[in-house]
Structure formats: C-alpha cells, structure tokens
UniProtKB/TrEMBL annotation, chain A:
<feature type="domain" description="MbtH-like">
    <location>
        <begin position="3"/>
        <end position="53"/>
    </location>
</feature>
<dbReference type="InterPro" id="IPR037407">
    <property type="entry name" value="MLP_fam"/>
</dbReference>
<dbReference type="Pfam" id="PF03621">
    <property type="entry name" value="MbtH"/>
</dbReference>
<dbReference type="GO" id="GO:0005829">
    <property type="term" value="C:cytosol"/>
</dbReference>
<dbReference type="GO" id="GO:0019290">
    <property type="term" value="P:siderophore biosynthetic process"/>
</dbReference>
<dbReference type="InterPro" id="IPR005153">
    <property type="entry name" value="MbtH-like_dom"/>
</dbReference>
<dbReference type="InterPro" id="IPR038020">
    <property type="entry name" value="MbtH-like_sf"/>
</dbReference>
<protein>
    <submittedName>
        <fullName>MbtH family protein</fullName>
    </submittedName>
</protein>
Amino acid sequence: MTNPFEDENARYLVLVNEENQHSLWPSWLDVPAGWSVAHEEDTRQGCLDHIEENWTDIRPASLIAALGGR
Amino acid sequence: MTAPTGADRRPVDLLARFARAVRTAPGRPAVRAGGTELTFAELDRRTAGLAAALHAHGIGRGDRVGVQLPRTADLVVALLAVWRAGAAYVPLDPAYPPARLALMAEDARIALLIGADGAAPPRPGVPVLGPDAAAAPRPAAEPDPRDPAYVIYTSGSTGVPKGVELTRGGVADLVAGLEERGVYRAGPSVVGWNASMSFDASVQQWARVCRGDTVVLIGDEQRADPAALAAVLDATGVTDLDLTPSHWELLRETLTGRQVRLFMGGEPVPERTWRELADGGADAVNLYGPTECTVDATVAAITGPRPHLGDPLPGVRLRLLDDGLRPVPDGVTGELYLAGPRLAHGYLHRPGLTAACFVADPDGPAGGRMYRTGDRARRGADGLLEFAGRVDRQVKVLGHRIELGEIESVLARRPEVTAAAVTVREAAPGDLRIAAYVTGPAAAGGPAVLAALRAQLPAHLVPHTLTVLDGLPLTPNGKTDYAALPAPAVAAPAAAGSGAPQGDALQERVAQEWRTVLGVASVAQTDNFLSLGGHSLAALRVVHKLRRTLDIDLQLRHLLDADDLAGFTRAVRERTQAGPVGRPALVARDRTAR
C-alpha cells in the first residue's frame, strides 16, 4: 500500500481553504468541498515548493488576523 | 460538569475551569512535589504573579515561551502561568544536549525563557525569568480556542526535529473527552505526573490541575526506583498513574494490587502485558494517539484477550482509508486518519510538511482537514480496532517516537561516515534496541562519532550499538536492505583481549550484574555500558540491584557517566567506602516517555 500523499512519481495539486490552510492533494482524486485549487497539477516537489513559497504562517488566517501578526 | 456532545461540543477553557477549582476548594492541594505542596489558592497566586511578570515583558497571545526547569512544583507554576499570559509554552528539558535545546528554542522563536536562576537562554538575547518572578496581576486577555497552547518537538525523518503546535481548545477538548468517556473520574483525583514535559503525554496529566485534581510530580529519582515510587504513592494517595508498557516491566511488582488506575500509552501494549493486566483485574486503559491530535485519540479498557485501540474519544473522527482515500472494509488493513477540533495547527515553519500531513478531508465539514497518522490498523471480526504497524520507518522505543532517518542524518553528516543505516532490533521479547550501521574507515565507529551523536541527540535517540560495515546491504533496486543488516557488533572492538575477569570480588560482582542485565556472556573492563546495548531501564536495573545488595548510595549517573566497566566499578567502590546512607535518592533519568 502506497500512501497517496507520498508517491514521488505521482501528480498533485495544491488546495487551499478559507483559512488559507494548504493541502497537498492527489490530482486523480476529487477536490473536497470547501477547498479550491491554488496550484495546478504538478510534480510532488513542485507542489511543495509552491506551498513553501506561498504559505508562510501555518496558523488559520482568521487567528493570525486576531493576533495582529504576532 | 455536563459536557455537550457531538458537533456542538464547546469545551470550557481550562483556565476558566482552574478559576472555578480555586473558588471551590482553595485549600486543597493542587501540586505536590517532594516536600513542597501548593494549595489551589497558592498556585493561583503564584501563576497570577508570574503571568503578570510575563505581561510586563511584553508576552501575550501568539507568543511562545521556553520553559527550562527541573521537575519541581515550579514547573507546574511556569506552564500554567504561560497559559495565563495567553502564550504557548515550549518544553526545554534541562537534560537535553545544549545544541538540541538551542535548535528547538531558535526554531520556536521563543520570546522569553522561564528558567532556573542563572540559566543561559538557549536562544541568544531572549530575557530570562525565574519561576518566582511576579508583578501586579492584570486581567488576562480573552483566549481563543485556536490560540496556541504548547509546541512539542518530535523526531523528524529529515534529520531535524519538528515542532507540533497544539491549541488551547484542543487541550480543553481532550480533557472534556476523557471525562465524558469516564477515563477521568468525576470527582477530584490524585494524579501522578510521570511523563517528561518533552512528551505530550505530560499534558494529559499536569493540565488536570485545571479540573481540580491534585498533581503529584513523580521525580526523576522516583519514577524508575520501584521502592521510592511506592513510597510516593503511599504518601500522596495517587489514584491515577500513566506509564508506558516498557515502564510497566520495571514497576510491575510495585503496582500490582494497588488501587491505582493505570493509563498505558506511548507505545503499543504487547499481548502478554495486556493479558497480564486483564487477567490480574487491573484498572487500566490503553490510550492511543499521535502528538498531532492533542495526546490521545482513542481509548480502550484493558480487558479481554488481546490488545486493541478501542474507540475514538469524543471530538475525534477516526477513519481507516485505503490508498484511494476510500474506507476499507472490516478485516482489511488501512491507514488511520484523524479529524476534529484537536488537530494541531501543523508543524512550525514547515508549511510543505504541514500541507502533506494535514490534508483536505473529503468526508468532514467543508474546508476541514484530517491528519494522516502513518499508523496502520484494521477492524477485526469482533469489531475491535487493532494496530497493524507503521507505513514508514517511525518506531517507538521505550515509548519514544523515533524517526530512524533523523539518526541516519546525524551520522551521515560526520566526515568519517560514508553511509549510514539505522534500524531497531529486538534483543529480547519487548526489548527494542536502536542499532546503527556505518560504512567508512574504522573511525566511523569510533568515539568521535559517538560523541557527536550524544552532543546532538537527546538520549532516547542515541543508538545502543554502532557497527562498522564494509558496505550496506542493498535491495535489487539499490535501496538499503534493512532486513539484511547483520546482528550488531555487541562488544566494542577495543575490548578484545582484555576481557578476562580479574581482581577482586567486587569487580566480579559488578561485572556479573552487567552480564545478567545485558544478556551477554562476557564483559571487559574497557566495555562501555551503552555500547553493549544497555539502555536507561537496563542501567536502572543494574544500579538498583547494586544499591540494594551492597546497601550503598549509588546513582544512575555513576553508570551513565562511567566510560567503561572499570570506571563504573571504581565509582561503586568509592560508594562502598562512603558507607551506607540510609535510603538515598536515586538520581535517575528514566528515558521512558511517560
């Protein structure tokens, strides 16, 4: 059994939700409700690179706002 | 208290519950540690003062505060005060190597350190407060359930530990869930706090002070010394104690027949231990859960013939999925995914890793996430959920979660080492040892490499054996063939030829204990205990036995600090000459996680 998130040879998407939380996502599976595509189909590493560049604070966006950027 | 159930659960924040506990019984003991006792009123006063001092240093919501303190009542004061200040704590175990502490403190970007007097901050430039610091209390900021509560570092497969950031709401949900399931009794209990604060199991114990329970710190000198532990249990009336199955092996005789509820966790309960507890009528539960889901995700009463994980706690959604994220039928092994309000925010400053592990949930609320645990499990024909191993190379040794890849990375960074492979081997049933293999010149297995491991890794990650090979065995597609690694070299090569026992009765007495505990036929005066495969529990057995039979004030550090058998024997001889000292404290550091 290969975990669907760990296949270096597979194609992936990057999903994002309303809280700006990002998720790696197997391109061959349906996108779950409440998530949209932030980065189109790419290699696993390409998707991870996109996430590292674009998601700089892993906390939920509304919490970051409430904390005033602390 | 009545707790809401289902999707509407909104557990009460633990600080609000603490305030209620203070009002209800201000004179009840809140914390007991050695000879120190703090009532709820005293703990309230001290934590309010320290929280105010933190505020005065600019600490508030969203900040992280390092806590680098030994296991005394001050530790509870510090952890609770950080929460009162609205911040999250980062446990920094004073026994960890300084390089490791610095790495964690820097990664967590701690804004302040609560440490003992004179402690040098592991992150340059951050202010240091003692646990006695105080200022005039001010009203606390209203917490958000998503406010970070603590950051726990776990072993990382790429060679760097990763910080998991958990939330205040997650901890409140954990406590409420354990109450709803009856794992915590309704009335005030007396909780033995056994786990190191570096492990998330500790949260499940110390935070119980917020619901009015008395927390008894099990000190390093007590947790591994059965007689000392029995004395603490007797003196304090502990009703609840957490421990790993490995720790049970040491404490079996002390705990059997006691009216103490045992919280087993940290590693799978072996079948023989399960049956022993079940058949003996012990009041014991098995708790399973990754750090990333706030300590415990499932609970099972330890009854019946075989180990299982039980059912998810309230607030946890558990799914067994296949490689297409479809639920697997009963009897089929799948990977365990967890969802619900207890999920961590993720891994600090590791967005890629976070997005690969905390993933979109196809079957939960819109926009929800689930955590893939890497644990495999299946539902048996009788409906019981059984653990079925890992999908990766993470292992549990004495309750510690270990990524073998992290140890390999440290080895591979050494100039002497060409290639490295690390695995675990079962030296005896249930006795797992970390075995490291390296290729390169003889120096690859030498003292400099061992010293580097000890300087960079906490003790539970340091391999028990280090073996130099001509080459690593490979699978047909060129990857390391871990199954084909040979049995580790047990004796250090330098020991050859010097192994003949010689000298006096004491020397032979000490050597005999090593042979018995390590299960080896012979030991040399130049042998190192750890290099022979000795681990912390084995070391405790040796020290405990010699203390008892020789009636001397021998401590664990005498064994762990000794370079070799000769050095340890010298220490034993010195203690013998010092004479018996009643029942001294055994200053032991049990490496068991909880």
